[in-house]
Specification:
The protein is α+β, with helices and mostly antiparallel strands. The chain has one domain. About 55% of the residues lie in helices and about 20% in strands. The chain is built from five helices and six strands. The protein has a six-stranded antiparallel sheet. A hairpin with a 3-residue loop joins strand 4 and strand 5. Helix 2 packs antiparallel against helix 3. The protein is flat, with a radius of gyration of 28 Å. The termini are far apart.
């Protein structure tokens, strides 16, 4: 004959089990809250900072906009030889109905002037008259209207931003641009050092 004996935990054991269950529930709650917060932040970032990427042959343009700071970072790449990479920072504004304009920031103009002067000394430099036009345009630094296709895409993102965005804290787009430029300059410096080492070794 089989006799089943029910186990009844002592008061101290029951208290320990209850505490353990509370700890498990607490960690589960923290994980759920952290996951929700991460998703909320990612959704808000996508609304605040839309990205547009276009590529044709060896040419690539990548834009990051920020509707809170009203700024835009433009990354331009040429995947050819010699390869070209540049990062520009622009102020951004909406004018009228779905019209957008940009103007390069003073810090970005300074970086672009450095790049222009460096390119002028390179083997693939533009003709002097074209160089002069580029330099003049940088010095004027006027507000420039985005083309209708880009403006329409941007305005679609902007309307979603107005309807759904909830404020979040994040690094400034200026800091993002500064990091990109610093990484680019560091890469160029290392390339120059390797080229100099090869020249000395030959």
């Amino acid at each position: 004959m089989l006799v089943l004996i029910a186990y009844k935990p002592s008061t101290s054991e029951a208290a320990s089990m209850g505490a353990a269950m509370w700890v498990v529930a607490l960690f589960a709650g923290l994980w759920a809250w952290s996951t929700w917060r991460g998703r909320r932040h990612a959704t808000a970032m996508a609304l605040r900072r839309p990205e547009i990427h276009e590529r044709k042959d060896v040419f690539s343009d990548y834009w990051v906009f920020d509707f809170v700071e009203m700024l835009m970072v433009h990354e331009y790449n040429v995947y050819d030889w010699p390869s070209i990479t540049s990062y520009s920072l622009y102020a951004l504004r909406r004018v009228g109905d779905a019209q957008w304009e940009v103007q390069q920031t003073p810090e970005s103009v300074k970086e672009s002037m450095v790049e222009l002067e460096r390119d002028a000394r390179g083997t693939g430099a533009l003709r002097p008259e074209r160089m002069a036009k580029h330099r003049e345009a940088l010095l004027r630094n006027e507000w420039r209207r985005l083309d209708d296709h880009m403006a329409a895409r941007l305005d679609t993102h902007y309307k979603l931003f107005l309807a759904r965005y909830r404020p979040i804290d994040t690094d400034s787009l200026v800091a993002y641009w500064e990091r990109l430029v610093a990484l680019l300059r560091d890469r160029e410096h290392r390339q120059t050092e390797r080229a100099s080492a090869r020249t000395l070794a030959s």
